[in-house]
Structure formats: C-alpha cells, structure tokens
Design goal:
By secondary structure, this protein is an alpha/beta fold. The protein is built from eleven helices and 13 strands. Helix 2 packs parallel to helix 7 and helix 8 runs parallel beside helix 11. It is globular and about 70 Å long.
Length: 382
C-alpha cells in the first residue's frame, strides 16, 4: 500500500506518538483537573506540557490561550459562534472548506449575519498579496466583524498571504480567524506576527498526532462566548462557565491520550524540521505534477502552486472510478468534492469532482513513479 491521503489524516504516525499514547493509558491517564490524586495531577501536567508546546510552536501569547478540541471543525465553530453577534458581516474566501462555509451559511440563513466571498485568484498566475487584499478591502463594510480563510487550500497547494491579510484586518478592527487544517505542520505560522485572533488546527494532519485531537489558539486579549457548557473542574458552584481561559472553553473531560500523542507529534515535527518537511513535500509535488502532466488524458488543477496537495481529473473516467481503480492497485487517495463546494467551483472541476493526491514526508520518488504508472494504465485501459 502507498498512502497518498495525508490531507485527510497523516499516516503512518511516528512511533513516539504511539508510544506516548500507550504510556498515557497505562501509566498516568487520570482525569485532568478533576482530582488531587497523583494520576489526575500527572494527566494535568501532560495537558499543560502540550499547551506550552503548541503556544511556543505557533507564537501564541501563552499556554492558557490553547483550547483543545476534537478537530479543526470544532475549533472553527467555537471561534465563529463565540465571536459573532446578530447583524455582523463576515468575509470568507472562495476556497473555503465546509467547516467554514456551513456554519456561516447556517447563521446567514437564520438571518443572524450576512457574508460575502472574496476571490483568492487561485487560477491567476499573476496573483499577489496586494491584489488579494485589494479584493478583500473592496468588500469590507462598516459592520464587517470577522474574516475567515484557509491558510492553505485542502484541494490544491494554493496558500494565502496570511500576514498581509492579518495586517489588513488589524487596520479595520476585524477579527481574523485562520483555518490551518492544511498548513499547521507544513508552513511557518506565528499568531502574533500574523495578527491572527483565532488559529484553528488539527492535531492529526501535518502535526502527525492522533485523530480526535485539535486546538484553537486564541490571540492576545480575545474573549469569546462559549460553544459548550458543563463541568470544568473549576468554580464548580457557579452556574456559568468560568471567565478564565482555557477552562472557559473546555467543558467535560479532555482526551488526554490524544493530547499526549499530539504533544509528541509536534516534537517529531520539530526534530525533523519544518523547513525540511516543507522542502520535501514541495519536491514530491513537483515530481508528481511532472509525471502526471505526461499522461494526455490528465488535467491538473492549479498545478502552478507547490505544496503538499495536487488535484487531477482523467478524461472519460469519473473521479470516483479513478479512486476505486487506484485503491485496487494499492494507492490511497481521495476522490470527489473533498467537503469544499466553494473550492471546486473556483477551480472549475467537472461534475463528480476530482482526485486529490496528498503525499507526506514519508513518501518517496519511487512511490510517485509507481503511482503515475498506475494512473497511466487506468487511463489506457479505459
């Protein structure tokens, strides 16, 4: 099997991640913040250790600003519903995942907010930070409260100029929420320098942690309403959630084993080197694009962008069929619309979507050669 679906979840997981999850469940998996006994304190210490690791890795103001979630989607919903008020206007990009689009669409359909979509110019070879920001500024209204965008697309390797967009948001007093599902662990991110008010990220993709782990990293001095209410092990006699972060946003028992694994995933990324991983993924992407472009039946979408994702379609073969045929040959990819109606409309993919290939740090040129050969065989047979 050759795994090429890292945009969905990274695989295989580092041995350090597996070991620490097992060690947690075997040696110190008490309920953090819910007791003064040794196991609860040990679990709480590991939780804090991971908060510190995340805050340091992403330039956060402090460990207390790290809120653990199940995934990026939960983090985005917390930021969106915690910061928006009735009558607010929101800007989102034309490449957003449904984790952004659906909560915004729901609030708009209920008449609580309005929103506009700004162009990322993903297919324009002359795109720049200046032209993208100009399109954003033209859509800002007096009641624009929030801008949300994916740092990196989940269907191609296009990246948005986050630092420039953050500066624009600061200028206009707009909350800046970043979906880092495809950039955390792939690209450098510094919440403070980039003006990010809420960084929403998964633990199980580029950070090499387990599924069921994710986080929201609040910027400095951001206070939001709560999405969930319940026990926090803190101020238990009060009917409201505490004002202090992170307890304000973390109702119920935290997934300590997943957080322990995430902590080791981040440390693995540090050991391997973010720049080394990024360089390898860009090279693999370049090689993949060059191999697939030699197959006449293949159309590549936005191949000028270099990163960890490539999207393609084969003439006369549906995306689902191509995905099935590749699976039969031992290649793991993802076919369809990838939970991104906006993105597929922007890239103008055909009915049924396209095939996403997302190599990781462990993939080799030999994997890519075998993959391209399989695609060529499938196209020739059909």
């Amino acid at each position: 099997m050759v795994y090429l679906d890292n945009a969905a979840t990274s695989f295989p997981k580092p041995s350090a991640v597996l070991y620490e999850q097992e060690r947690c469940m075997r040696d110190y998996c008490g309920n953090p913040g819910r007791g003064s006994h040794a196991l609860a304190l040990a679990a709480a210490e590991k939780i804090y250790e991971c908060r510190t690791e995340i805050a340091d890795f992403f330039g956060g103001a402090g460990a207390e600003n790290v809120v653990f979630t199940m995934n990026t989607t939960m983090a985005l919903n917390m930021a969106i519903k915690g910061l928006l008020h009735r009558g607010d206007h929101v800007l989102i990009s034309d490449m957003e995942h449904n984790a952004v689009f659906r909560p915004i669409y729901k609030l708009a359909r209920e008449g609580l907010i309005t929103y506009d979509v700004f162009p990322t110019m993903t297919l324009d070879p002359c795109r720049s930070a200046e032209t993208i920001c100009r399109g954003i500024e033209a859509r800002i209204r007096p009641n624009t409260r929030m801008l949300i965008c994916a740092h990196a697309s989940n269907i191609c390797s296009a990246v948005l100029p986050i630092e420039a967009i953050g500066a624009l948001c600061r200028k206009h007093g707009i909350f800046f929420v970043v979906d880092a599902a495809q950039s955390a662990g792939h690209l450098p991110i510094h919440v403070g320098q980039m003006g990010i008010d809420a960084l929403c990220a998964p633990g199980h993709k580029g950070l090499l942690g387990p599924q069921g782990s994710g986080f929201l990293l609040w910027g400095e001095d951001v206070v939001a309403d709560t999405l969930l209410e319940g026990g926090s092990g803190f101020r238990s006699l009060e009917g409201t959630m505490p004002d202090e972060a992170p307890e304000r946003y973390e109702a119920g028992t935290l997934p300590t084993p997943a957080i322990a694994g995430l902590c080791e995933g981040i440390r693995t990324v540090r050991r391997l080197g973010l720049s080394n991983m990024e360089r390898h993924e860009r090279e693999i992407n370049r090689y993949l694009a060059s191999m697939l472009s030699q197959i006449p039946e293949i159309t590549l979408y936005a191949p000028m962008h270099r990163g960890s994702i490539l999207l393609f379609h084969a003439d006369g073969i549906s995306a689902d069929r191509m995905g099935y045929e590749l699976d039969q040959r031992g290649f793991c990819v993802r076919a369809g619309y990838h939970c991104s109606a906006l993105g597929h409309a922007t890239l103008r993919t055909p009915v049924g979507g396209a095939v996403r290939v997302s190599p990781g740090f462990y993939n080799t040129h030999a994997h890519i050669e075998a993959f391209a050969k399989a695609v060529s065989e499938i196209c020739g047979r059909n």
